[in-house]
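Thread: Newbie trying to understand structure tokens

Hi all, I'm a second-year student working on a class project, and my supervisor (Dr. K.) asked me to get a predicted structure for one chain before our next meeting. I've only ever worked with sequences, so writing a 3D structure as a token string is new to me. If someone could post the tokens and maybe explain what I'm looking at, I'd be very grateful. Here's the chain:
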Amino acid sequence: MAAPMTRKEVLQALSGLFMGMFVAILAATIVSNALPVIIPEIGGSQSVYTWVVTAELLAMTATVPLWGKLADLFSQKLLLQASFGLFVVGSLLAGFSQDTTMLIVARALQGMGAGGLTALVQIVMAAMIPPRELGRYAGFFGAIFAVATVGGPLIGGVIVDTDWLGWRFCFLLGVPFTLLAMVLVQRTLKLPAVPRRAVAIDWWGALLITSGVSLLLVWITFAGDRYDWLSTETALMLGGTVLLLGLAVLVESKVADPVIPLDIFRSRTVSLAVLASALVGVAMFGGTVFLAQYLQVSLGYSPTESGLLTLPLVGGLLVSSTVAGAMITRTGRWKGWLVGGAVLMTIGFGLFSTLDAQTSPWVLGLFMVVLGAGVGALMQNLVLAAQNDVPAHELGAATSVVSFFRSLGGTIGVSVLGALLATRVADDLSVLGTAEGAGQAATPDMSLLPAPVRELVQNAYADATAELFLIATPLAALAVVVVSFIREKALKTTSGAQRLAEEQGTAGMPLH
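---
Reply by user tm_fold:
Sure, no problem. This is what the structure looks like when written as tokens:
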């Protein structure tokens, strides 16, 4: 059997993995406060504004399962370096973009690289570290994911507000850190060589899954904006999505090496973790997006100030994910953290449903700590539960499927809740007969509105945001029910690499 890595070797390898992961997640959120500056400078329209965000998110979400399957077949270290490389190329192209087409293509390349890192970092961690020890390191991963997600808008706001940097630095910032991560991974990551075997790449499955998911996300992104939710376009896109994904299931059930092995869903733990992860995605992404808008529109804070005010959310996530991981490693018990995290997430959503335009920042901070603590205790430990329940040769598929549905849930949550918010604001302001255009999806420029109108808009956005959290509260409560049905199993004490060597009879193969 291959000797387990020492803690020093694990920490050295994780330094590069976590650095790359942080930069990749940051890329998805750092542009949110920069786009109002970027798009006019390169001659873009409102539709381009949407696609600069959507292209990266589509590419990341759709490719996560593909990277996960490749990790079960080929060298995970080589795939990591390929993900880093795609991300660097996309970042450089975005930073030097001269027109909107170049920027959108660059963002798609960034998304493909980020999709690889999202799946592969967790897969490599499971290969290096036994599940019993993984909780401690998974807590760090969850904290990094949370800080990058919530901190991105703050960093982007600071960059665009700094004259000698400019918006291009939002994309170029991550390049040197990604290159350093590549060097660290090459020098410190030692995994057993993957035995050479004949494999048939499931190209049809990959194409159908990617096409089906992309069509679904495109529909969600534009429904309620370019066309009605109930419309011919909706019928065609939903019909096409069902057809493509139905064909994908048929293909996956017949090929020898499917992108997503359907038999992993025979595991109750994996199936429930997937469902719960999608619900966590709504909380993680939807909560942060609409909180930032609420802080800027309803409470009148600047982009940089609103970023600073979300630090309690980051703190709650950071502390809870780290403490939960350490306690799981110490005790070997993990289900209580899943249930407790889901309960806190539900309470957090319920508290946020009481928001109004006069809510104190101190009260908001308390709400954020509760929500952050819940998501932090729940998010990464769902991956741990799934990884502990599957054979070593399916670690990649199980990890990427859970991550994929978290990202998909976040995308759907942001799009649907955003459409509901825009509709509610527009309805409120139309009844009041004020502020033409203020209820549209784009955030209004509050400085241009007269004081009486500004107060009406602030109240409209506050009421709409509170309603969104009220709608999301039952979804969070559903996560409590879902994780309650997950059966707790003792965490394995051997790493994924050691278990794979046992399964394939290749113990003692050299590291690479």
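A couple of things are worth pointing out once you decode it. The CA atoms of residues 66 and 259 lie 6 Å apart. Residues 435-442 have pLDDT under 50 and may be disordered. Feel free to ask follow-ups in this thread.
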